[in-house]
Amino acid sequence: MSSRHHTVSAIHGDMDQNVRDIILSEFRSGSSSVLITTDILARGIDVQLVSPVINYDLPTQPENYLHRIGRSGTFGRKGVAINFVTLDDGKILADIQRFYNKVDRFKNHDDRVMTTYEDSRFDAGQFDSKMSEQLASEAEDAFTSYDEVSETFDVMGLRENLLRGIYAYGFEKPSAIQQRGIVPFIKGLDVIEQAQSGTGKTATFCSGILQLLDYKLVQCQVIVLAPTRELAQQIEKVMRALGDYLGVKVHACVGGNRVHEDQRILAAGVHAVVGTPGRVFDLLKRQSLRSDYIKMLVLDEADEMLSRGFKDQIKEIYQLLPAKIQVGVFSATLSPEALDMTKRFMKKPVRILVKRDELTLEGIKQFYVNIEKEDWKLETLCDLYETLAITQSVIFVNTRRKVDWLTEKMSSRHHTVSAIHGDLDQNARDIIMREFRSGSSRVLITTDLLARGIDVQQVSLVINYDLPTQPENYLHRIGRSGRFGRKGVAINFVTFDDGKMLADIQRFYNIVVEELPENVADLI
């Protein structure tokens, strides 16, 4: 493709972590318009502007199709997936259609070497019904019944310093999966927890782990396995943040980093290890990672972990762990093959399925402002800030260029603002976020890249200067992925061209966004 003058990037598992980070950063920034990769990037990588996805080769497992075409989160995403199908691919294509209960028409054009798959979006209803059907097909005596729902974190019996970490991270009310999934885990039960990506599964198992650790014993007591380096590192960050007041020592052991560095950190002592199966197995075999005190094993994105690609490694790791161990399995989907695998190392697990329609925007008042022209948004924004007494707020725009432009415009009007986007290095981002958290600046302007990572308790207002390009990002923007019950106000600037997206958002979340009332000052 390069020889035909296409600007392409390529990424695969043999590259070290630094190289992968650079390539992904370039792709996110738009420096390259095409990314060629393997299933390694089917999960955990969210690039907002991707359209289309092309399966040059069909996936070898039907469940990977879902993760490829929309980052498990396909649920409602608009886009196009094009599948190249040879004669030999007929069986896997049929398997994919059967797996997702979707048999659509294909149009074959004699004048094109292409097959177009019509209406290839994954349907949320199909997801829910498939998961229910899958679980219902299992014998009831294979599972432990557990129906308790905890509507607040305070009633879960969590350590005080864990609660401090949870609230400092930005959670006010547990999500549906957290309401049902944390308590059985901290009671020592094996669990299978399934919910759509972005519903708080990571915080669910991290909270359970942090509750059960013995902090006086600086030995590895839990292993969390994830299919990709990037996901493992994300989990490490969440666990470290939630355990900030507990003094948790957690380390990510992933390929691409030096084994000697892992060995040095493990020798110094950690409470928890998050990692990819290959590196964790290697360290267990070397006895650099000792299993003597390990009492928990957690599999994230478990459908991938229990597929043929990782299945043997998971078995080998499990065999090196103590006989009595608690197991947690977390995933958006679980194939029958993966579910069958769980029987080999789980003892009557509690099973929890949270459906898509249980996502909540409760507690967040949402409004829109009709703005006739794009050019008038700035005046509307400044009018709001002159009218309202706002503690702190976040403004979302859709491009890095607009972040810089809006920052300059607001600064020139004497507003104290900070700006953050993907081009800034990590140190600069940390400094800016620290200033914003401390209240040195009242306004943070950013893009969707950071919609999931902004955790500031004092934020009372989110403004979508630009509506998100995908409905599911609306959720992440207006409440710190935080659909988790955060109280506040969201104001959406809507031009004529935004009408369809606003309608999509309302339909996606089954909500009504009302026009901004005159008494908005009383709501903030």
Automatic annotation (TrEMBL):
Give the record's keywords alphabetically. Answer: ATP-binding, Helicase, Hydrolase, Initiation factor, Nucleotide-binding, Protein biosynthesis, RNA-binding
Motif Q motif location, chain numbering: 151-179
EC number of this enzyme: 3.6.4.13
Is Nucleotide-binding found in the keyword set? yes
Matching entries from SUPFAM superfamilies are given as: P-loop containing nucleoside triphosphate hydrolases
Give every DEAD-box RNA helicase Q domain span. 151-179
Q: Name one GO molecular function term.
A: hydrolase activity
Keyword Glycoprotein carried by entry: no
- Stretches of the chain forming a coiled coil according to its record: none
Q: Which CDD domains match?
A: DEADc_EIF4A, SF2_C_DEAD
Reactions listed under catalytic activity: ATP + H2O = ADP + phosphate + H(+)
Domain Helicase ATP-binding, first and last residues per copy: 182-352
Start and end of every Helicase C-terminal domain?
1-121, 363-524
A Pfam family found in this protein is Helicase_C
Q: How does it assemble?
A: eIF4F is a multi-subunit complex, the composition of which varies with external and internal environmental conditions. It is composed of at least EIF4A, EIF4E and EIF4G.
Q: Which family does it belong to?
A: Belongs to the DEAD box helicase family. eIF4A subfamily.
Name under which the protein is recorded:
RNA helicase
